[in-house]
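Batch manifest line 214
LIGAND: glutathione
JOB: complex structure
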Amino acid sequence: MKIILGNKNYSSWSLRPWLLMQHFGLDFSEQHISLYSQDIRQQMQGLCPNYKVPVLVDQGISIWDSLAICEYLNEQYLEGAGWPRDPLQRAKARSMCNEMHSGFFAVREEMPMNCRREISSITLSAGAQADISRIVEIFNQCLAANKQQGGFLFDEFSIADAFFMPIVSRFNSYNIETGQPVAQYLQKMLALPAYQTWLSAAKAETQVIEVAEV
Ligand SMILES: N[C@@H](CCC(=O)N[C@@H](CS)C(=O)NCC(=O)O)C(=O)O
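JOB STATUS: finished
ARTIFACT:
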């Protein structure tokens, strides 16, 4: 199984399935694409059906969307452990991931993921602030409903946490004030061994993408 990724420092969509695979100890190799480089089309030719990353290649097929990859991994390798076991919680987790997948445009636009960014605040639009309030609201709801005190959005680590890891990284980099218990959740996610591995690789990259340096 091979995953094709963008730059670890900047590629938020790549981080999501990679974190799931790494956290659950799946066996995979990686191939990297340099985003924003002149020859990106050539790099992606024959690898990325829609000229985007991430792409997972397994058993002769390509899966080209972060959420579709997570769903596939959950079914094929995780025996359902990628989602909460309870169908109601699972429906909620899926709603959150879809909300992330299709929304929060102001946060995505104004606060590009930049894992190695020195922590500092920036001025945000009302739209970005509304996105942040909504995210903090859903984080708070999830954490308040933790039955086993597992500390992840649905108690145990799930695809929902993987999907919001780039948001956690952004909240950290751009010094977003969330209050508790969300601040504690952010620290738990930032300390995850899988994320630390990603971060080390992001720090070792040399390409700087100016448009993502805010
Ligand atoms: N909905 C897609 C989004 C993928 C996406 O936009 N990837 C970006 C990098 S994070 C990309 O490949 N950009 C390259 C380009 O647009 O040329 C997913 O969830 O995988």
